[in-house]
Amino acid sequence: MIDVVREAADDKKGIDFIALDVSARTILADAFVIVTGRSKIQTRAIADGIVEAVEKDGHRVARVEGYADGTWILLDLGNAIVHVFTPEERTFYNLERLWGNAAGVAAQ
What we know:
35% of the residues lie in helices and 27% in strands. By secondary structure, it is α+β, with helices and mostly antiparallel strands. The protein has a 6-stranded mixed beta sheet. The longest helix is centred in the middle third of the chain and has 17 residues, at 40-56.
């Protein structure tokens, strides 16, 4: 699923894609994916592209949060949680630091 998410984000020109293996640190998901869009419009486009791609690939999107605001959109894909940020929000919340001990996930 990480490959599908990465390709969808790349198609919408998402930047600074990272996938973290958090399976040993939380029961929420196996992976946290973080990607940045340059504006609220772009974060929504990235989120839309990811939702469309994972559903086409046969996966279910359990929940979408933050879409209306567009500065931090969270997509709950079950085994993976995708965070689509504007640059300012990504810097402010700095999830990479918070989950910094998590290993990067190889594309799956």
